[in-house]
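@channel sequence for tomorrow's demo:
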Amino acid sequence: MAKSKIYKTAKEALAGVLRDDMTIMSGGFGLCGIPEALIGAVLESGVKGLTVISNNAGIDDVGLGVLLKTRQIRKMISSYVGENATFAKQYLAGELEIEFNPQGTLAERIRAGGAGIPAFYTATGYGTQVAEGKETREFDGRHYVMERGLFADLALVHAWKADPEGNLIYRMTARNFNPMMASAATVTVAEVEEIVEQGSFNPDHIITPGIFVKRIVKLDKVTKHIEQRTVRKRAAAE
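structure tokens (generated this afternoon):
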């Protein structure tokens, strides 16, 4: 009988997987769809020297911000990091290595890694600092920059629903980066809001096939963080 992919806690789901100096992909967009429980388990493990691939770096006390605070992250490969003061402080002090990517380029580098494509050409970034030190070529009169595909030791993703085989469905904005990261790592661990019975999913609705997912943990609760709360000013009372 095949071993169950379902684990009771995030700590158990990452047992035997984490090590110093590994490369981790962390899904989500802003604070939406981030694998917060799994990030907490990485924090608790104390592993260090990490290279983390993520669209953003969370905020100071949420998401990847907690790993930056404990200096467990050595390098970030990211697109947008403007909401994290700890990130900025470490970067400006030369304590954190950063590889910035245009957001679409980062997404395609991850997708390419999952598809087994080692490199590709894109016009984005040509003639800017993004292209420094990279191979460039001209195709049909337009200049392009070569970008390498990305593949990690471990992908941490957040999904809405899973079945016992690890087939995943994401919800709305949480679909950003999570699906492509799930296919671009040696080991993918998914935290999910709900686990349904085998056969419950319409096959056409599955976004990440279970073949990519090694371990699953069901969340006891899900906190929906708001990165920047913006409200309309109330009209003055008459």
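heads up for whoever presents: The radius of gyration is 19 Å.
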